[in-house]
Amino acid sequence: MVDEPAEVRIGRGQRLAEAIREDLELFGVDELEERVRALEGEIARVRAQIDRKRAGRAAADALFGKTPD
Predict the structure, then answer these.
(1) Measured between alpha carbons, how far is 31 from 23 in angstroms, rounded to an integer?
(2) Which residue in 1, 20, 28, 42 has its CB near the most CB atoms, within 10 A?
(3) CA distances from 29 to 24, 26, 36, 52, 58 (A)
(4) Which residues constitute the domain of residue 51?
(5) How far from chain centre, in Å, is Cα 25?
(6) Does residue 9 carry a pLDDT above 90?
(7) What is the DSSP string of 44-65?
(8) Alpha carbon distance 33, 41 (integer Å)
(9) What is the pLDDT of residue 25?
């Protein structure tokens, strides 16, 4: 019986933390511009998720009669 390596579980936000620590000196201009585009896309995706969560919370608050803080 061969022991298979255990699957490494990556913690929430760990990849972002690793990306933030990367040495940008190692990247060329094209790579940096691509990185900016990817990060801008991720920012848009995160903001959309925030909007969905706020809308869901507002709907729940309206249904259950809680007023916004």
Answers:
(1) 13
(2) 42
(3) 10, 10, 10, 35, 43
(4) 25-64
(5) 24
(6) no
(7) HHHHHHHHHHHHHHHHHHHHHT
(8) 12
(9) 97
